[in-house]
Design the sequence.
């Protein structure tokens, strides 16, 4: 298929290695760089106040003239969410399937991306000639239609990136994987397989979506009051199950949630959802129906439903509240680190009078393949080399073990770190360099302006609070004009700690008077003395270390 000899073939993961989400992989062939996916990650627990996390694309900005294209495997935000930030710095075409590009375009508009984007639609039969390589695709089975794997054809063999996948033997037409095409790719000769590792620690096969459809219909049938069905906004397969169960049980559906409405309308307009027109009603018409005739399909502000459910349980949601007799059906897995939050939310839902269906019935299954499916992909592709991607390190190691069981040689399996340059040369695979990589934190409209020091300060503030010490000095006489005044936030309740605050004020006064009589009086040393001595005193008294912020002002007296 490839007409010319390639002298250099490399691969770099800027995200998606050693973590769930933030998927971005680079394949370099000769001088050309091809980007596969541009995803975001939702913040971890210690990233206080951060909205989203994207990959560090310093290397791409430094080599922007070499970047030829971006390829998107599917429309989930962990694969397309960072696209606007990448396109801010790179003017390259973006290739993807119809639904993926429609969702990416809507997300760009939501993120207020103004520049013109060169979207080029492909399908699983498309073959692209991009000079140094040819690109082909195959359809995969995931929780969103139009998911594809990507094949980069080089003179040394094909580099295959699977994207997210599973093998559901009962998959409906929109979700059927092209197993025959995958086998054909394997027969052509796969140099390296980059494969989804999310389910590498789960034995057997992922439960079929047909089981979910049946269990969901049963749950709807047995519910006597309203049903609140919560799922991820981009889980279109699960949304279809909810619509189907509502139709079978003669219920009307109310769609709640900005992200959900956006994705629902796009999928419906493009024909990726089958919904009868009279099945959907606006929230204003709910009172015209009995509780037993209503389903509320909902999600939250970032496309995940748990936070919105908690607001409903606390009666603080602006559109909807949980009432006695409701059935809450949680058809979603918690995001990493939010398991405790989910547990508390379920408890609150029960307290609010709802019956919660979660885990005890199969109303949700993973959209990623388990161990036997991952082995099946390896056997279909018959790769010479293997790189597990899209997973925490323990999952990458579990996937490595599966590859060994499938007969791959240990020296043909590589688990790089983020930013490692993996190169194929003389029939071997090796890590030959390192490029800039890491997390870029998005807080509001700030991109990358919050780093480790700011996060450390936020953590300190969340733990022991802050003390602001304000002192005003006279310039000529070097005396205290007013203060010291100490303001406490998140440290102690001032009215109940008057002695501590009075003693702290006296201590600061002594420090200031001791410093200003010195011939070599400096503002910086005064501030540092206040921090050090007040910190020691407060720790002795309270065993807490609040952040201390001295503010020294100077006035001219006439």
Sequence:
């Amino acid at each position: 298929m490839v007409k010319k000899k390639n002298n250099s073939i490399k691969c770099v993961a800027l995200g998606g290695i050693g973590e769930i989400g933030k998927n971005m992989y680079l394949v370099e062939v000769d001088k050309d760089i091809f980007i596969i996916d541009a995803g975001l990650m939702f913040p971890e627990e210690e990233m206080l106040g951060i909205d989203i996390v994207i990959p560090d694309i310093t290397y791409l900005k430094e080599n922007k003239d070499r970047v030829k294209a971006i390829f998107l495997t599917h429309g989930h935000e962990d694969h397309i969410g960072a696209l606007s930030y990448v396109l801010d710095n790179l003017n390259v075409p973006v290739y993807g399937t119809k639904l993926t590009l429609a969702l990416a375009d809507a997300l760009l508009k939501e993120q207020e991306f103004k520049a013109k984007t060169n979207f080029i639609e492909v399908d699983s039969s498309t073959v692209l000639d991009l000079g140094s390589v040819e690109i082909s695709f195959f359809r995969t089975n995931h929780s969103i239609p139009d998911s594809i794997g990507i094949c980069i054809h080089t003179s040394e063999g094909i580099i295959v990136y699977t994207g997210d996948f599973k093998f559901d033997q009962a998959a409906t037409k929109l979700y059927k994987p092209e197993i025959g095409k995958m086998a054909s790719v394997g027969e052509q000769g796969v140099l390296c397989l980059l494969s989804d590792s999310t389910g590498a620690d789960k034995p057997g096969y992922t439960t079929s979506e047909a089981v979910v459809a049946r269990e969901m219909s049963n749950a709807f049938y047995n519910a006597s009051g309203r049903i609140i069905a919560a799922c991820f906004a981009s889980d279109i397969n699960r949304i279809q199950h909810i619509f189907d169960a509502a139709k079978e049980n003669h219920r009307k559906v109310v769609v709640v949630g900005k992200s959900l409405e956006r994705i629902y309308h796009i999928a419906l307009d493009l024909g990726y959802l089958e919904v009868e027109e009279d099945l959907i009603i606006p929230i204003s018409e709910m009172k015209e129906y009995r509780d037993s005739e209503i389903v509320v399909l909902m999600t939250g502000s970032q496309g995940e439903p748990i936070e919105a459910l908690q607001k409903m349980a606390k009666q603080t949601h602006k559109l909807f509240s949980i009432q006695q007799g409701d059935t809450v059906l949680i058809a979603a897995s918690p995001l990493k680190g939010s398991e405790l939050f989910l547990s508390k939310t379920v408890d609150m839902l029960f307290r609010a009078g709802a019956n919660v269906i979660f885990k005890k019935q199969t109303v949700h299954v993973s959209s990623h393949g388990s161990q036997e499916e991952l082995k099946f992909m390896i056997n279909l592709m018959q790769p010479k080399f293997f790189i597990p991607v899209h997973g925490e390190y323990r999952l990458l190691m579990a996937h490595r073990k599966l590859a060994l069981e499938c007969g791959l040689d240990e020296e043909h399996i590589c688990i790089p770190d983020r930013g490692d340059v993996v190169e194929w040369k003389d029939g071997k695979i090796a890590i030959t360099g390192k490029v800039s990589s890491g997390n870029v934190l998005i807080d509001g409209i700030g991109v990358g302006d919050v780093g480790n020091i700011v996060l450390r300060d936020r953590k300190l503030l969340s733990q022991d609070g802050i003390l602001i010490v304000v002192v005003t000095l006279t310039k000529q006489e070097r005396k205290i004009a007013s203060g010291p005044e100490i303001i406490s936030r998140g440290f102690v309740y001032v009215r109940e700690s008057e002695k501590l605050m009075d003693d702290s004020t006296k201590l600061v006064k002594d420090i200031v008077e001791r410093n200003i009589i010195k011939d070599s009086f400096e503002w910086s040393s005064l501030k540092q003395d206040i921090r050090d001595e007040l910190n020691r005193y407060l720790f002795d008294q309270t065993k807490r270390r609040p952040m201390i912020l001295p503010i020294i002002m100077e006035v001219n007296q006439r």
User: Anything to note?
Assistant: The radius of gyration is 29 Å. The mean pLDDT is 86.
